[in-house]
């Protein structure tokens, strides 16, 4: 340890600690501008200059490591004078439009201007009056306000690894821009904007809507994917104004993706109903909550007494919190007494590897998943690992993904070839000498190998199992889809599974149950079956149901088919917990109240009608879970990790099936901007990606005579589906990719995830 004195305060620090870090330890404040904890030191702004005893030169605290017995002065008159001049120099070109600038109130330059008492700039003020750039749909760029701290460039390069923006020109001509001033080739993560200390990069979704000092901040967990990012919900008067990261908290370490950061307007959406609806003949009538519950109670009781308990079925979505999911299955199993409980989740692959395992691994395989799209923050961790010089990252996927920049080898194969190729890799793990031998050796000889895969594809789970059989210390990372994909299974919302993954009697399969007229009442909590290809055909079978209940924040395509619809809360309107892909249980907190009930209200109040009291308070439900769910005994609800009984489970050999007989191989894409029915309700996300688009290789496009934005018809058997086109050289010739989570693609993917199709130019 080294001993350092900062303004007379002695601290002991590790070698390599900077003066800034030592000062922080000593509780001494040093102003900063270009420094950011998560980025490499840069030393550009000089605002953090300090005096070091014995040194004739001033030092930048953020870049200078301490030495033993160093004595530092951070707050002399001389330093104040220099810092003040530095700020004044920045203000020469900086437009003083603070009253309208969206950063007002949280701008470092503004703060430092106040701190140093600058009321007048001694130098000639020369604003540049450059035009404000609105080419990025989420980020406004005003280069005149830029202080050239480089944080945006560095975060896009060092962490996001996209390098969409950089310093352009030299000297006084320098500005932050895109290559050749072209539109941003960007992931829309907003990371650059989040670190900008001034109003140069602003959030367009939030622009001019509120002021930071009006906002209340509620910490919670993102409601989209299974990464489980900590978010700060900024709100006032029950309106959500923006969602931000907390640099110091959460598994996401201050990073968010486009969905989590910009996809929040759906919470405030004026399309959200606040009143329940009950179908009367062919028309829906608005009813109050109790009226809707009475209808459900009466019809459900009638169905049970006429057809028996097994005639009732529940579909439960991962949007429910653990607490809600637990109550939902309890209501189904103990009040209705049915085993017909479904979710679209899997028990074949359970959490094993963590972010830390991914980031610290030097040998990773990402198999058949574009994790940068499906689970963006997990994707950052893979990039962190991949960037390390000594690491080996091998990616197997049908097209190039952003991991190409950091992968040691990126193996691109059409779906029909991918599994055969991986079989060769598996053989190389067994010692066979083939083209994968070096990669296989690197992988199996590493002390912390990691395998990231798609847990919903049984063939991929089988592959994961084979990897585990050969490399016993591998950490498997099943990249689950939704915010509480894991939690709802843990809570027993799976056919044949009680809470804690304890096997129980299976109910009838949903499709067969409905087809065979065994299921007469269906209660769908939060799931929009219409966008889920797996359930798509069921929608056509629901007319014969005697009761069809849907809860959803929106009057979804599925809700339109129901007899009773109850609008419910989004993640921002409730308390509880979600369990992420690591098996980490994290609490969310209610930020706003949109005047609707939660799924918990629906379940608890409905149970009351049946004469059963279920607990309502989060603590009480958790007490019950801890008793009834062996996996959650003593769990820390604020970040604890659950230990699962196995990693992967698969029976027998799984055959890879690619249906159809066309010329092109179609495979599903999972998007960074869209993941189902919630994101489609976001105006800004839909502005960027509003409909499913076929991605096609340039050669194929030439042959078909199509260009960007033309339409192609996919023909499979007698069915045809029309979609817009994007030509992209990352796609292999003879393959096409199309996103899965749209209602327009649900009927197509119902036929299978991988299809051979023909393409016809749409005239
Ligand atoms: S939004 Fe993300 S990808 Fe785009 S420039 Fe900013 S940091 Fe880079
Ligand atoms: S745009 Fe913002 S973050 Fe980027 S260099 Fe300018 S001031 Fe710094
Ligand atoms: S990575 Fe997932 S959890 Fe994180 S902000 Fe994006 S959607 Fe939300
Ligand atoms: S904060 Fe140290 S040089 Fe900018």
TrEMBL record:
SUPFAM superfamilies: 2Fe-2S ferredoxin-like, 4Fe-4S ferredoxins, ADC-like, Formate dehydrogenase/DMSO reductase, domains 1-3. Residues 78-117 form the 4Fe-4S His(Cys)3-ligated-type domain. It comes from the Bacteria. Residues 215-271 form the 4Fe-4S Mo/W bis-MGD-type domain. GO terms for molecular function: 2 iron, 2 sulfur cluster binding; 4 iron, 4 sulfur cluster binding; metal ion binding; molybdopterin cofactor binding; NADH dehydrogenase (ubiquinone) activity; NADH dehydrogenase activity; quinone binding. Residues 137-165, 176-206 form the 4Fe-4S ferredoxin-type domain. Coiled coil: none annotated. One of its GO terms (biological process) is ATP synthesis coupled electron transport. It is found in: Membrane. CDD domains: fer2. Residues 1-78 form the 2Fe-2S ferredoxin-type domain. GO terms for cellular component: membrane. InterPro entries: 2Fe-2S_ferredoxin-like_sf, 2Fe-2S_ferredoxin-type, 4Fe4S_Fe-S-bd, 4Fe4S_Fe_S_CS, Asp_de-COase-like_dom_sf, MoPterin_dinucl-bd_dom, Mopterin_OxRdtase, Mopterin_OxRdtase_4Fe-4S_dom. Keywords: 2Fe-2S, 4Fe-4S, Iron, Iron-sulfur, Membrane, Metal-binding, NAD, Quinone, Repeat, Translocase, Ubiquinone. Its main location: membrane. Belongs to the complex I 75 kDa subunit family. PANTHER family: NADH-QUINONE OXIDOREDUCTASE SUBUNIT G, RESPIRATORY NITRATE REDUCTASE. This is 2Fe-2S iron-sulfur cluster binding domain-containing protein.
